[in-house]
Specification:
The complex is a heterodimer of chains A (294) and B (530). Chain A has a two-stranded antiparallel sheet with strand order 1-2. In chain A, helix 7 crosses helix 9 and helix 11 packs antiparallel against helix 12. Chain A has a single domain, classed as MetI-like fold. The longest helix of chain A has 31 residues. Chain A is mainly α and 294 residues long. Chain A contains twelve helices and two strands, in the order H-E-E-H-H-H-H-H-H-H-H-H-H-H. Chain B has 22 helices and three strands. Chain B is flat and about 110 Å long. The chains are: A mainly alpha (294), B mainly alpha (530). At the A-B interface, helix 1, helix 3, helix 4, helix 5 and helix 6 of A face helix 4, helix 7, helix 9, helix 12 and helix 13 of B.
Chain lengths: 294, 530
C-alpha cells in the first residue's frame, strides 16, 4: 500500500491548491492573454482594439522575413538537437567507462550547463571576433595559423556559429540523461551478449540503445522545447542581423513586439510558436503516459 | 606460464614500433619551410624591359648575385614589372629586381643548426634511436609471458626502451614550444619592427641559421613570403606522439589493442575537457586584462602581462554587487516559493489517491513545455495589469511558476522512491499528515529536495529574457541583465563584461557541482520512472 488515507475527500486538493493557483495565474492566464491578443487589433503603443479575426495571422505570415525565420528555426532546432544528442551519447558512453579522472571529467562537463546562456554567448561572441578575438589569438600563438581568420565572414557562417554554441551548451544535458540510462543497465546483459559472441557494434545496437531509449526520448523532447525557446544566444551574438536573416522565431517575435512595434503579428507568431510547442508536448505526453502503463 | 603467442605478439610490437619510427622519419622529411626569400631588392622607375636602363640595373644585380653564389648560395634574380600611367598620361613601368633564394627546409635541417631548440630535437632523435636499440636487444629472450617473468637483462632493456621513448615523447612539446616562438610569430614581428626589446640574441641566431648572417633587416620581408607556417606543420607530430606513448606502454607490458583504446579514451576526454574549459579560460584571462590588451590582435601572450585586479574594483563601482544581490533575492525567492508550493503538491501526488491525479500530472508535464519566452507578451500584459512591472517580485513569481513543474516532478520522484511505512507508523502514533511530512518524510528526502532546490535556484539565477523585458529600472536588474550594460552597440568593454560574468558564473558552477552526483539519478527520474 503506497498511499496514505486522508480524513476528507477534499484534502488532496487542498495540498495541490497553492501550486495550482500559481500555475493558473502565471502560466495559464498569460496563454489566454496571448490568444486573446492575437485575435484583436493592437495599436503601436499597445492599446487593445476590437476583434479582427485572423488578420494578425495573415499579417504575420505575409511578413517578408517570415519564411527565413521559420526555416532558420527549423534548422536551428534540428541541427542543435540532432548533433548534441549524437555528441552527448558518445560522451556518455565514454564517461561510463572506468578510468582515472572520471569524476573530474564529469564535474567539468557540468560547466556549460550551469552557466547562463547570456554569459556563454558573450564569451563566444568575443572568441570569434576577427580583429581581436581569442580564437585567432590562441591559434596564432600556437603557430597553427599565420594570419587572423575572419570567423564570421557572412551571416550564414555566423548562424552556424550560433548553432555551434547551442550544441556546446546542450551537450551536457543529453550526456547526463544518457549516462543515467547507461548506469541502470545490468552488467549481466553485456556478459550474456559476450557469451553469444556479440561484438562492440552488435552490443551497442542490441543492448545499449534499446536500454537507454527512454532517457534518450526524455532528453530529446525536452531539448526540442529548450532549444526552440532559446533566446539569448541569437540575441547576444547577432541580434538577428542583417534584417532578421539569422533570427529564430523567439528572437524575431521579441524584435517585432518590443522594437518594431508590430504587436499584432508578434502575438500571432507567439501563438504559432505555442502551438508548435503543444504538438511536441503532446508527443511527449503520449510517450510518458505509455511508460506509466508499462 | 608459457604463452606461444607471446613471441608473435612481441614481434608485432617491435614491428609497430619500427613503423612508428619510420613515420617519425617521414614526418621529419616533410617540407616545413618552402618560400622564396628576397635577399636584395632594387627598384627602378621609368624602365621598360630590354631598354638601356634595364640592362645596366640587370648587370648590377647579376654582380650582386654572383657574389652570393661565390659564398655558396643558390640564388636567382626575379623581376616584378608594374605598368602605370604617370601624371602626363604617358605609359611608364616600374621594375623591381630581387636576388632571391628558394628555401626548402624540413625537420632534418633543424638538426645541424645552432638554435637552442635544435638541441632538443637532437635529444629526441637520440632517445628514439636508443629506445629502438634497447627494444631490439631486449627482445632476444625466449618466449616469455608477462614483463615480470622476463630474464633480468631483457627486462631492464625493455624498461629502458619504454622510458627512453617516453622521454622522447615528453621532449616533443618542449621543442614545439621553443620553435613556435622562434620561427613564426616572433620572427615575423621582429621583422616588422613590432617587438624590439631583448630579442637581439634570438634574432642573430635565427639569422645565422637561415641566411648565414647576411640577411639583416630583410628577414621580415623574407618571412612575408612564407607559404606554410613552419610551426603549424610541427603540430602534425602530435599523432606520432600518441602512437609513441602507446608503443612505450606496449614495450613495458600489455596488449596493443587495449593500450590503443585506452589512449584514445584519454585523448577524447582530455580534448573534451579542454574544449569545455576554453570559454572559461577566455573569461578569466580577458576579465583581468587592460582594455588595450583586450583589443590587441598582436597580443602574444596566453595570459595577461599584468593581472588587472582594478577591473574588479571598477565593476563594483558600476553596481555589480547590487545586481548580484538582486539575483540572489530573485533566485532565492523563486526557489522558496517553488518549494513551498511544490512540496505539498508533490506529496499529494506521491502519497494520496484522488480523482484527477492523472489530469494534474498531465497538466504539470504540459506546463513544463511552455517556456516563458513564447508567452513573453502575455506575461508583460499580466504584469502590467497586476502593477508588478519593474519589481523584483514579478521575476520571483515568473521563475517560481515556470520551475514549478520541474520541482514537482523531481520531488515526486524522490518521495515515491521512499517507502511510506515510516510515515504510516508515525500516523498510527498520532501524528497528523502535516507533521508526518515535516518530521518523517522531509528529512529522509533531503538529498532529493536539495537537488530540486539548487536546480530551481540555478534556473532562476540564469534567467535572462524575462528579466530584460520586465525590469527597466537599472537598480533592480539581476546580474544576467546587469552584465549587458558593458556591451552597447558601438563599444563593448570586454574586460568588465567578463570580470562580472565570472562573478555571475562561479557560485552557480560550484552549486551545480555539488549536485552533480544526484543529477544522473534525479534528472530523468521523473520522466523515466513516471
Amino acid at each position: 500500500m503506497n498511499t496514505i488515507r486522508t480524513k476528507h475527500r477534499w484534502e488532496p486538493y487542498l495540498w495541490l491548491l497553492p501550486s495550482v493557483i500559481m500555475l493558473a495565474v502565471f502560466v495559464v492566464y498569460p496563454i489566454i492573454l496571448v490568444f486573446r491578443l492575437s485575435f484583436s487589433e493592437i495599436s503601436k503603443s499597445g492599446v487593445l482594439g476590437g476583434f479582427v479575426g485572423f488578420q494578425n495571422y495573415v499579417n504575420a505570415v505575409n511578413l517578408p522575413a517570415f519564411k527565413t525565420v521559420m526555416l532558420n528555426t527549423l534548422f536551428w532546432v534540428v541541427s542543435v538537437v540532432g548533433l548534441s544528442t549524437l555528441l552527448g551519447f558518445i560522451i556518455a558512453m565514454v564517461l561510463n567507462q572506468k578510468f582515472h579522472g572520471r569524476k573530474i571529467a564529469r564535474a567539468i562537463l557540468v560547466f556549460p550547463w550551469a552557466t547562463s546562456l547570456v554569459v556563454q554567448a558573450s564569451v563566444w561572441n568575443y572568441i570569434i571576433k576577427y580583429e581581436y578575438g581569442n580564437l585567432n589569438n590562441v591559434l596564432l600563438n600556437l603557430g597553427i595559423i599565420r594570419e587572423a581568420i575572419n570567423w564570421r565572414s557572412s551571416y550564414q557562417i555566423e548562424f552556424l556559429w550560433e548553432c555551434g554554441v547551442g550544441i556546446f551548451v546542450t551537450v551536457p544535458f543529453v550526456a547526463f540523461c544518457v549516462l543515467s540510462g547507461l548506469q541502470s543497465i545490468d552488467e549481466s546483459l553485456y556478459e550474456a551478449a559476450t557469451v553469444d559472441g556479440a561484438g562492440f557494434w552488435s552490443k551497442l545496437w542490441n543492448v545499449t540503445i534499446p536500454m537507454v531509449r527512454p532517457s534518450l526520448t526524455v532528453s530529446t523532447v525536452l531539448n526540442i522545447i529548450y532549444v526552440f525557446n532559446s533566446f539569448p544566444i541569437v540575441y547576444t551574438m547577432t541580434k538577428g542581423a542583417p534584417t532578421h536573416k539569422t533570427d529564430t522565431l523567439v528572437t524575431y517575435l521579441y524584435m517585432l513586439f518590443f522594437y518594431e512595434k508590430q504587436k499584432g503579428p508578434a502575438t500571432a507568431l507567439s501563438v504559432i510558436g505555442f502551438l508548435i510547442l503543444c504538438l511536441c508536448a503532446g508527443i511527449y505526453m503520449v510517450s510518458v503516459m505509455r511508460k506509466e502503463e508499462e | 606460464m608459457q604463452n606461444p603467442n607471446l613471441k608473435a605478439l612481441n614481434r608485432r610490437a617491435l614491428l609497430l614500433m619500427l613503423v612508428g619510427l619510420l613515420l617519425a622519419a617521414i614526418l621529419f622529411s616533410l617540407p616545413l619551410y618552402s618560400f622564396q626569400a628576397r635577399i636584395f631588392t632594387k627598384k627602378s622607375a621609368n624602365t621598360f624591359v630590354g631598354d638601356e636602363k634595364y640592362q645596366s640595373v640587370r648587370a648590377e644585380m647579376e654582380e650582386i648575385a654572383e657574389s652570393y653564389r661565390a659564398d655558396g648560395f643558390d640564388v636567382d634574380i626575379s623581376e616584378d614589372v608594374t605598368l602605370r600611367t604617370n601624371s602626363k598620361g604617358e605609359q611608364t613601368s616600374l621594375i623591381a629586381f630581387s636576388v632571391t633564394q628558394d628555401i626548402h627546409r624540413n625537420l632534418w635541417s633543424f638538426l645541424p643548426s645552432s638554435l637552442p631548440s635544435a638541441h632538443v630535437l637532437r635529444a629526441i632523435a637520440l632517445c628514439m634511436l636508443l629506445s629502438a636499440a634497447c627494444a631490439l636487444l631486449g627482445l632476444r629472450g625466449e618466449e616469455e609471458t608477462v614483463h615480470r617473468y622476463l630474464p633480468a637483462r631483457s627486462r631492464r632493456l625493455r624498461t629502458a626502451a619504454g622510458v627512453l621513448l617516453l622521454i622522447a615523447v615528453l621532449l616533443v612539446p618542449v621543442f614545439l614550444l621553443m620553435n613556435n616562438y622562434f620561427f613564426s610569430r616572433r620572427l615575423a614581428l621582429i621583422g616588422k619592427g613590432l617587438i624590439s626589446e631583448g630579442v637581439e640574441q634570438s634574432f642573430r641566431q635565427a639569422d645565422s641559421f637561415l641566411f648565414g648572417g647576411r640577411m639583416g633587416e630583410k628577414i621580415g620581408d623574407a618571412l612575408s613570403g612564407l607559404q606554410y607556417d613552419p610551426s603549424g606543420m610541427l603540430w602534425l607530430l602530435i599523432p606520432c606522439l600518441l602512437l609513441s606513448i602507446v608503443f612505450a606502454i606496449q614495450l613495458r607490458n600489455g596488449e596493443i589493442k587495449s593500450a590503443l583504446l585506452r589512449g584514445l579514451l584519454y585523448f577524447f576526454v582530455v580534448v573534451m575537457c579542454l574544449a569545455i574549459l576554453y570559454p572559461y579560460y577566455v573569461m578569466l584571462v580577458t576579465g583581468f586584462r587592460s582594455n588595450a590588451e583586450t583589443l590587441d590582435i598582436n597580443f602574444l601572450h596566453m595570459f595577461p602581462t599584468e593581472w588587472k585586479f582594478e577591473n574588479l574594483a571598477y565593476i563594483v563601482q558600476r553596481g555589480v554587487p547590487r545586481y548580484l544581490l538582486n539575483s540572489l533575492i530573485i533566485a532565492g525567492g523563486a526557489t522558496l516559493l517553488a518549494m513551498l508550493c511544490g512540496i505539498p503538491a508533490a506529496y499529494a501526488m506521491a502519497r494520496m489517491s484522488f480523482r484527477g491525479k492523472k489530469a494534474f500530472l498531465g497538466f504539470v508535464i504540459m506546463s513544463q513545455m511552455f517556456s516563458p519566452v513564447v508567452l513573453l507578451i502575455g506575461i508583460t500584459q499580466l504584469m502590467d495589469s497586476l502593477h508588478l512591472t519593474n519589481t523584483v517580485m514579478s521575476l520571483v513569481f515568473v521563475n517560481a511558476a515556470f520551475n514549478q513543474a520541474f520541482a514537482i516532478w523531481l520531488l515526486r520522484g524522490t518521495f515515491v522512491s521512499i517507502s511510506p511505512e515510516m510515515e504510516q507508523a508515525a500516523m498510527i502514533d498520532g501524528c497528523g499528515t502535516v507533521s508526518s511530512l515535516l518530521r518523517v518524510l522531509l528529512p529522509m528526502a533531503a538529498p532529493g529536495i536539495v537537488t530540486a532546490l539548487i536546480f530551481v535556484f540555478i534556473n532562476a539565477w540564469n534567467e535572462y529574457t524575462i528579466a530584460t523585458v520586465l525590469i527597466q529600472l537599472q537598480t533592480l536588474r539581476p546580474i544576467t541583465v546587469g552584465i549587458t550594460q558593458f556591451s552597447s552597440f558601438n563599444m563593448i568593454e570586454w574586460q568588465y563584461l567578463f570580470a562580472s560574468s565570472l562573478l555571475a558564473t562561479i557560485p552557480v558552477v560550484i552549486l551545480f557541482m555539488t549536485i552533480e552526483k544526484h543529477l544522473t539519478s534525479g534528472l530523468t527520474a521523473g520522466g523515466v520512472k513516471g
